[in-house]
Amino acid sequence: MKRVLFASFAAAAILSGCATETVPACRAPAAHEMAAFRAIMSHDRQALVNATVPGALQNAVSSADPAVSSHVWGSQGITQGSVIGLLARPPLCILDDMRTPPTDAVRQILVYPQDSFDRVAPAAETPLADAPPPYGVSRRDYLSCRFEQTAAGWKLADLCGYTRPVAPATQTGTR
Question: What pLDDT is stored for residue 62 in this prediction?
């Protein structure tokens, strides 16, 4: 009886060791993600302001800061490397960015055009430990977008990788 029980436990341990996580599968954008992406795709600055975390970056979007606008919508008709340049290639493939574990306050996602993901991702059966995302080159193959929970729900916090300084948020009407 003890041998049968031991053999059962040993077999279960071996099988659980075989259940290796593989390359993550794509998911569709969540509603809050799609709201931010829709604002960008439609060039709706006010909708993007509404979809962005309050603060300096939101003010930069509202005031049409040239560097922020270029990051999001490109410049002089050139959209390569901009947020819209990647979002304009549907369908989108969304992965949760494992480099930043999701919490109740912050979520980091990787956004790929499906054709880019299919081109750069390893085979689906590849163990995740051997090939963790992201795959490809940032702003060519994918975007990394951070969303933060606010009193009004999930909002885009970094305009999908914007890293340049912006003027600090100020209250209007003060001198």
Answer: 97
Residue 98 near residue 71, CB atoms below 8 Å: no
Q: How many domains does the chain divide into?
A: 1
Determine the structural domain holding residue 29 and report its residue range. Answer: 21-156
Q: pTM, whole model, 2 decimals? A: 0.83
Cβ pair 26, 94 in contact under 8 A: yes
Confidence of residue 164 (pLDDT cuts 50, 70, 90): confident
Question: Does the residue 87 lie in any domain?
Answer: yes
Task: Note the Cα 115 to chain centre separation in Å.
Answer: 17
Furthest C-alpha separation in the chain: 84
Residue 155 near residue 52 (C-beta atoms within 8 A): yes
Sheet strand arrangement including 153-156:
92-96, 106-113, 143-150, 153-156
pLDDT of residue 60: 97
What 8-state DSSP symbol labels residue 143?
A: E
d(CA 93, CA 46): 26
9 occurs within a structural domain: no
Asked, for residue 35, whether it belongs to a domain, the answer is: yes
Which amino acid does the sequence have at 26? C
